[in-house]
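Box S1 | Example of a co-folding query
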Amino acid sequence: MIIILKQNAPEQRVQALIDDVKQQGMTVHYSQGAETTILGLIGDTSRVDEDKLRANDVVFDVRRISEPYKAANRRFHPMDTHISVGGHTIGEGFFHVLAGPCSVESEEQLLTVAQSVKASGATFLRGGAFKPRTSPYSFQGLEADGLALLREARKITGLPIVTEIMSEAQLDEFEDVDILQVGARNMQNFRLLKALGRTNKPVLLKRGLSATVEEWLMSAEYIMAGGNENVILCERGVRTFETMIRNNLDISAVPLLKSHSHLPVIIDPSHAAGIAWMVEPLARAAIAAGADGLMIEVHNNPKAALCDGAQSLDLDQFANLMKEVRRRTEFEGKSAD
Ligand code: PEP
Ligand code: MN
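Box S1 (continued) | Returned holo structure for phosphoenolpyruvate
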């Protein structure tokens, strides 16, 4: 981080600033040019409050040279993170498909979908029990009964379960869930992120509707700063000016995240596309870009789905998608394990 000082800044005030920064554990490199004086901060600047520095009247500008996230940063953790969950490993070199209905609707629906996606090659069962809906009048999920059905489906199929947690007050209730999903709308629910940081549960952190990659990594940092390093990032499309698609899948997020972070990256083409026919081409793009897995919405009768039916694949469409996924991931030397 560098601090550019205002011209003719009083020496005493500059010294006070230098002392303050040093007290925060930083070494300061003072460089006086013909026109500008620059202070170079050397050390861990992730906890330095940029706004506070900017508010100092001797400061003209503050620029970060390194990223504000540390635990999630590949620079400090060059090796890829692998997460062991439900007898599988998620991370670079492996490829997992997390599939299931947007929301758990009934025993028959969930068991039918779970058995079918397993037969097609999915390695995790996803399903929402608590649904964050835009309208309070829409179906909100079966809640605790939905969680019970997910446990039953896991018992029958052996598939580990992934479901969305909306509040830190639910941590006990979600104790035996294999992967806790933090939805796009809660990506910056900092109390929830901090509470998840105090657990050792794998967390699937979805990207916020209009979050930058850095904001997203800072949310991962909240969880990791608490000691929980089991974070999986999930790109699900972002809002743009485009109206012909639900969200724009940001495929460039995959190589970007892979270069800036060591965390596994999963793509959710269903919420990006918003429409079933586009799920497969986006899934192919995800594999080509280097994602470590996919999260796909599947329903036994999409037309009758209580949530996100338009983007849900039916059982046959999912089986076909999995053939394509297997062919392409095998070519890349990746498998589910
Ligand atoms: C979901 O996975 O069903 C969901 C609600 O996704 P998102 O949080 O990405 O909108
Ligand atoms: Mn959904």
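Residues 2-63 form a domain with the Alpha-Beta Plaits fold (CATH 3.30.70.1140). Residues 102, 271, 297, 307-308 surround manganese (II) ion (ligand 2) (CB under 6 Å).
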